[in-house]
């Protein structure tokens, strides 16, 4: 069986003042961190920055990788790469995205419940310094 490789990136964004995580409610009624599929020619970091901007309007910088998950979904071998992110600019208005029902800041306990594929929870990822990400030249 030939599976197609798909890379999906996410940003873990914490508002330290409120201790809330930025999440999106997707059209399929599942919650996730903001992010999406990497396009041809993009680095993982470029895709993360673009996807967060498209879905939420937030400008971010991207740090270390805090989680790497993989799954076999609909004939695809999917790698989910989650980066620590830092907000550099907040939007005046959240953009409308056809795949997103709403963008919301949720408390860490809710984020843990919404993200069962991180068995130790989002709260553990926040404490994880992560793995370095380097683009070799």
TrEMBL record:
Which Gene3D superfamilies does this one have?
A: Nucleoside Triphosphate Pyrophosphohydrolase (3.90.79.10)
InterPro entries (UniProt xref):
Nudix_hydrolase, NUDIX_hydrolase-like_dom_sf, NUDIX_hydrolase_dom
Alphabetically ordered keywords of this record: Hydrolase
* GO MF term list: hydrolase activity
Q: Which domain of life is it from?
A: Bacteria
Q: Which PROSITE patterns match?
A: NUDIX
- The residue ranges of the Nudix hydrolase domain are 4-128
Q: Belongs to which family?
A: Belongs to the Nudix hydrolase family.
Its protein name is: DNA mismatch repair protein MutT
What organism, scientifically named, is this protein from? Collibacillus ludicampi
């Amino acid at each position: 069986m030939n599976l197609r490789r798909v890379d999906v990136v996410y940003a873990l964004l914490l508002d330290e003042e409120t201790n809330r995580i930025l999440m999106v409610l997707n059209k399929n009624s599942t919650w996730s961190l903001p992010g999406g599929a990497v396009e041809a020619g993009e680095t993982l970091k470029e895709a993360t920055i673009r996807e967060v901007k498209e879905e939420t309007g937030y400008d971010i910088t991207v740090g270390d990788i805090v989680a790497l998950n993989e799954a076999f979904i609909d004939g695809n071998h999917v790698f989910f790469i989650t980066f620590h992110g830092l907000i550099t600019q907040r939007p005046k208005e959240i953009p409308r995205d056809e795949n997103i029902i709403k963008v919301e800041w949720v408390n860490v306990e809710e984020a843990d419940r919404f993200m069962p594929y991180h068995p130790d929870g989002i709260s553990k990822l926040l404490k994880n310094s992560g793995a370095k990400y380097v683009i070799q030249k």
